[in-house]
Amino acid sequence: MTYSVDFNLHNLFSIRLENPTSEAVKAVKNQVGIQPSVLNVEPDLTVCYVDRFNVPICHTEMGTAGFTNDEFYVVTGDGRREYRVQFPFAALGQPCKVVCETGTTEIPLLKLIINLRMLANGLMPIHAAAFVFDGIGMVVNGWPKGGKTSTLFSFLTHGARFVSDDWLFVDPNGKIYGLMQPIKLSDWQLNQLPNYQAKVKPTKRWVIQGLRWLDTVEKLVPEWIREKLLPARAFHQGLRYLNKKQRHVTLSPEKLFGTNLDAPTGHFDLLLLTLSYESPEVVISPLTTDIALERLMAALHYEWMKWEGYYSQYVYAFPHKRNILMDTAWDKQRVLLKNILTGKHFFSVMHPHPVYLDELYNVVSKSLRQSNGL
Questions:
Q1: What's the predicted TM-score (pTM) here?
Q2: Is residue 49 within 8 Å of 66, Cβ to Cβ?
Q3: 3-state SS of 243-296?
Q4: What are the residue boundaries of the structural domains of the chain, listed by start?
Q5: pLDDT digits over 303-314, tens only?
Q6: Which end of the chain is more exposed for a tag (fewer CB within 10 A), N or C?
């Protein structure tokens, strides 16, 4: 008997997991940011789990992907063993099926599957934060670590309504459909967000505080000692590793904003393009439509590059089985974006890193009010 778990994303994209483990259900829930639900339609994506693929594959990039005469496989793993996933590149954009070896948790390239299906249905996927403030729907885009989450939380602390922190989808009328995926906050952000910091487990707060203390001690050690003495150098390198891995938390929107939070939506009225720069000031300035479009396209292309690498391996394996939607995705996205951006306001926001969230809010909100953006 087949056991299934379904997910429904805004009635725009649906997933059915057939015979998943509890770990797989949890992982997919985090990937799409929604709870399982009952589907009354055929799913856009069916994910089946099987024991093992007992077939040899030709590797394109070892440990990443490979193929047989008929099928393309993405290789994933948990650090202890590898799992193969039969991946339907030719069918992306249509209802399709992915077959995973049991033990696979996160579905590889799931965001690509969702994004192409949304594109096929006329919606524009954008990697951005979004919120509604004073009735105005704001989308915040930028390079990774460029300030999307900081801008989002600087406004949330002043009454804004959460829509998205990661990927969102915009329909031709400008309606935004957000994802409730887990949100990553650095310790310097949490220091300025006491209400949200209180939601972090005490043990995690103690770990972060301990690392701060070790940082303080380590900075008292002269640089020549760190370079000459092996124990000091090893301590320095180990502390750098721990800082990278532990000086942040990842929390679900339900944990941050409340368990009754519905799948969020909003409207695209204004675009902020954020950048970190080497100055203590926060500076906001208006942008033309052309510059906003090109910067947004460049940022999106950076996000798509990792998916294009897998697609290139697929084309290498099956030169005559290309995916037309994947080949034309950029032209289609440009057309959709030009339509969506018509009549909108655009601003560049440059800020130091780390930034004082209250100052970020004050400068941006004041400038937007003066320019009638709010």
A1: 0.92
A2: no
A3: HHHHCEEEECHHHHHCCCCCCCEEECCEEEEEEECCCCCCEEEECCHHHHHHHH
A4: 4-120, 124-182+258-301+318-370, 193-250
A5: 999 999 999 999
A6: N
